[in-house]
Amino acid sequence: MDSTSPPRTIAMLVGGGPAPGLNGVINSVTLSARARGWRVLGVPKGFSQLMVGDVSGVRELTEADVAGIETKGGSVLFTARANPTKKQEDLDAVVSALTKLEVTDLVTLGGDDTASSAVKVAAAAGGNMRAVHVPKTIDNDLPLPLEAPTFGYETAKYWGAELLKNLLADAKTTSRWYLVTAMGRSAGHLSVAMAIGSGSHLVSIQEEYPPGAITVSDVADLVEAAILKRMAAGEGWGLAVLAEGLLDQMPEEEMAQYVTEFDEHGHPRLSEIDLGRVVRDVVAARFKERGVKMAFITKIIGYELRCADPIAFDVQYTRTLGYGAVEFLAHGSGNALMSLQDGKLVPIPFAELEDPATGKVRVRKVDVEGGTWQAALALQSRLAPGDLEGSALDALAAVSKEDPSALAARFSRLIG
Asked: How many domains does the chain have?
């Protein structure tokens, strides 16, 4: 930095839902920037206060402010889902507030919506402000190269699998089925990782189905078939993981029966819907008609994971990304997302991440042709072709109390 040039001023904020590792980025950005003689301003609660011109909560961060926070969950800057791009007056207010604070660089921590907002704020500033985005989401749905995870995902899947292991032990001990709804609005990465990492018996994700091609009854069929398969094997207990995004793949008229609220970015509030309970009611009714009593427990897992203390992977990852964000601002042109590829810090221009159809950051889906999902399919208690033939079909029919041919006809479409 030229000794005669004024110090740069970074404004840093967090958008969207929490994820393990937020404090690691905040720690690293602050330490790296202050080592360069820059000011670092912590903006609380995302864009929400800036949108109304309120800068009273903004404070300069020092080394003492961020000491030791890197291993802690949550965010010392809090977070909010406020969307500054829906109304021009909100966007103008954000730019005006940041200009008033003499901000030269904007560092945002968040998912796809926060990244899109950062792009538009920087553009609205007319070249007077550069932005760099550090991608976080426990959903792992940002399109990072080389399958690099978004920060927070590794911690979330670890603790998620640990929780499911406890539920599996309870299911076996008490002879019941757990139907767990896992977070993942746009992609089923977390559901798959939690289920396979814990040894759960079934996982269903939105990527299995084309948009509008699945109903609650279809999900109930999948769960019912898995229960019957395990019953035929002498096991009357189990655990199924259902990605919350399954609701988003249902026809609009069906989803409308369950989803009535939307967030500031227009996304349905799927995490507030207990999909497992909806499916349980259908499956339980079917077993009741057979005269078979089944015990079900439903749970939503996601909020327990978002503010967990990060595992060592995410502590190292987030502090590296935070350092990289400051280095990029020091030597680059700004307006990019920071990534770690093959051990190298690589900024990805925002334009390369956009979906031309939506103008938003592309979503990384689970590759249903890929090895991870194919392995997941093989390790579940799903029906296989041989299950609807011969003695295997007879065993299923016996526990289901149905005619073998009728049972085969009903479940044949579940076999890929």
From this structure: 2
Q: Which of 10-24, 81-95, 250-264 is predicted least confidently?
A: 250-264
The residues that bridge with 181 in the sheet, in sequence order, are: 242, 300
90 and 200 share a domain? no
For residues 320 and 344, what is the distance between their CA atoms, to the nearest angstrom? 10
Four-residue CA torsion sign, 22, 365, 264, 157:
negative
SS3 string, 155-175, reads HHHHHHHHHHHHHHHHHHHHC
pTM confidence score:
0.92
The enclosing domain of 277 has a CATH number of 3.40.50.460
Q: Please state the rounded mean pLDDT for residues 199-206.
A: 98
DSSP letter string over 346-400?
Answer: EEEEHHHHB-TTTSSB------TTSHHHHHHHHTS----GGGGSHHHHHHHHHHH
Residues 50 and 36 in one domain: yes
- What burial class does residue 86 get, using C-beta atoms within 10 Å of its C-beta: 0-12 exposed, 13-18 middle, 19+ buried? middle
Catalytic residues, by residue number, are: 139
140 and 79 inside one domain: yes
Buried b (16+ CB within 10 A) or exposed e, 275-293: bbebbbebbbebbeeeebe
Domain around 129: 9-151+310-353
